[in-house]
Amino acid sequence: MDYGQKGAWARDALRNAAFAVSAVSSTSSSMLAVRDVQNNGEEGGDPLDLIPPEKLEYLLKLVRALFDARFIASCYNIAVLFTISVFAVLHWRKSRIDRRKWLARIRGRRSASVQKTTMTSTTTVQPPSSPASSSRSSPGTSTPTGNWKDNLVDLERSPLLRGRTSSLTINSTRLDRKSTIGNTVSSWLARQPPPIPTINRTLPSNGTSLFIALWILLNIFFQMLLIPLRWDYFFVFGDKMGFMFIVNLPLLYLLSAKNQPLRLLTGYSYEALNIFHRRVGEMMCFMALVHFVSMVIWQFVLAEDWMLASKTAWAYFTHPLILCGLGTFTSYELLYFTSLGSFRQRWYELFLASHVVLQIAALVFLWFHFYTSRPYVSLSLAIFVLDRLVWRLRFKRATVTAYIQVLEDGQTFLVSADWDILPRPRPSQDQPWWKSPWSLFSFFHPNKSILNGWHPTDHVFLTVPSLGGSHALQAHPFTIASAAPVINPHSTSSAAGEQQQQQPTHAWFNLLIRSYSGFTSDLLRYAQAGHARVSVQLDGPYGSSHALDMLRASGSAILVAGGSGIAVTFPLVWALLQQTNQDLLLSDAEEAEEEEDKVARRVSPSTRRQKQRVHMLWVTHSRSHRNWIPQEQFDELVALGLDLVIPEPTEDAGRPDVAGIVKGWILDAASDGLESGVVVSGPDGLNRTVRNTCADMIGEELDVRIAVEKFGW
């Protein structure tokens, strides 16, 4: 190729780059120079002819490197989609196995019930006087039935497994074996390290940290792949860093959305995904900082004078495209600082308002700053608008009349309401699903609003317009502390509007709220002023069935609550014990019952024969906290088989041996070959203690699964 042909090709390439590069990466003064070159060429002579061959060759390589870098970065989301697909397959497989175990257990219970009814025509069932009287309980650690408040035990002086020595001795060979490499790795992944010293920042489990580290390495790989490692190509590095920021935008907004497919695909709750959302946001803010610093270094340090269109700092930073870039950078950095835990806890209302305003401003600035970002900005904005305005305001919000009751300690209050579950219309039997928009809507969005019911561990966003001021625009998250209603899917109306003659399910809804500051303290003062009734808006429910599915599949269900964590564990216990018979009735009505029986029979006979054990430990700070849950409800659950442990309040007796109690329950189940499912919800210290205890048991080759329900906002 002679120089004339090369110059013609370069001229076309640079002119195309002037549109696709200078408008996109406006922080590059060299690209501004290319744009000026194009404009001057249109007016008269072509300045490209004045560029020496060696400099023209360099510009051609620079433009080619820019396009190659952007193509590589655009493939990043393919890797993200592949990773999500892998997690979806693993979740589907585990969910299917869990369902088999649960179905096998409840079918076994039905079979045993039928056999017992056949053997005796009249049977009187008396609830045990105490869970401790059962050979499957831990004597000395269970709260007896009756007035359990007057029968609290001193756990520090009670043996954990009295009367179970023979069973543990039989299985001691297994417990004493050296753990395999797989168990060692699983134990390490489940373990949670202590907080970072000095700054006292809580760390997630090692497994979560490892996943985040791998995601960071994936970004580094795409960032550095085929980047020319020369100072005269440093602009390519800074430009690609900005593009890596862009391709992460849809993931950031998808993780922040309440109504998202990732929860259904992976099984992780919004709270679990929110940890990854924060790490993605922090990484993107770091990318924006590196992009900004890199472009400044290129402009004022590395770029040669002949490449600069803006010779002064004032001309550079006041350019419209540069100003839009600065607006984007400032908006996202402010988002980072206002999202810090210390800021959210002190000024949550300001965090809510700034999060919405800054996100919209950042997307607008980015739209004008980086031309190639517009498809990603459009997708992110669509996710934000659909989640906030369409789903949450149109479909997920409901207004109810609630009652506020201040509890004994004076700092905790109960927001309660009740209503009949609204029937949801469904398509007729003879109408194909592809002709019914409602069928598709029900698949992607099965639970419309709180008026249609909720599930254990779900939470809602509460808004109380009666408080006045900015409270009408604020939505605060709270876990639903009451048991989830059992909804018969066959009691809903058909598409033709025909209502089956069945009694509607009644929902009893409770929120247990501790006064802290801001909204909660204002609502407490509002109740203390004599306002027992108030109109509230509920946005939700949101959550995941992961914890309940895990517990149902486990032979031994262990739940640990610290303080207000009872709002998570109590509905789970209620679902495990109180709803079992109702779940059996509902499962009989399913069209796929034969297939469920078929898959249930694949589970080992020992799993089908064993009755599930349910243990719950509730650690409270003061004696008045036990009034949060009515005694009658605990009595009913204990009569159904709950092994309930409520130690003396920590303000009177100090912290109980939580690790010892949980370990005892796990060993007790392991001696009979049962898998243990553990759910903990409480302060960070309690969560870490229980998690690490389970990690130790996994290292000893015991079948243990752990789920931590810790909500951070």
What number of structural domains do the residues give?
3
Shape: globular
Number of H/I helices: 28
Radius of gyration: 31 Å
Helix content: 40-55%
Low-confidence stretches: 1-44, 116-178, 427-444, 489-502, 583-596
Q: Tell me the strand percentage band.
A: 5-15%
Description of the molecule:
InterPro entries: FAD-bd_FR_type, Fe3_Rdtase_TM_dom, Ferric/Cupric_Reductase, FNR_nucleotide-bd. Residues 393-548 form the FAD-binding FR-type domain. It is a multi-pass membrane protein. Residues 117-145 have a biased composition (Low complexity). This protein has helices at residues 3-22, 29-43, 53-74, 76-119, 165-170, 172-176, 181-190, 206-224, 234-247, 249-256, 261-266, 270-302, 313-317, 320-338, 341-346, 348-369, 374-395, 437-444, 519-528, 546-553, 566-577, 580-588, 593-600, 605-609, 631-639, 650-653, 658-670, 684-699; strands spanning 397-406, 412-420, 459-463, 476-479, 506-514, 533-542, 556-562, 613-619, 642-645, 676-681, 704-708. It is an alpha/beta fold and 713 residues long. It has 3 domains: 3-74 and 208-392, no CATH class; 97-203 and 582-708, no CATH class; 397-495 and 502-542, Elongation Factor Tu (Ef-tu), domain 3. Helix 1 (3-22) crosses helix 3 (53-74) and helix 4 (76-119) crosses helix 20 (546-553). The chain is globular, with a radius of gyration of 31 Å.
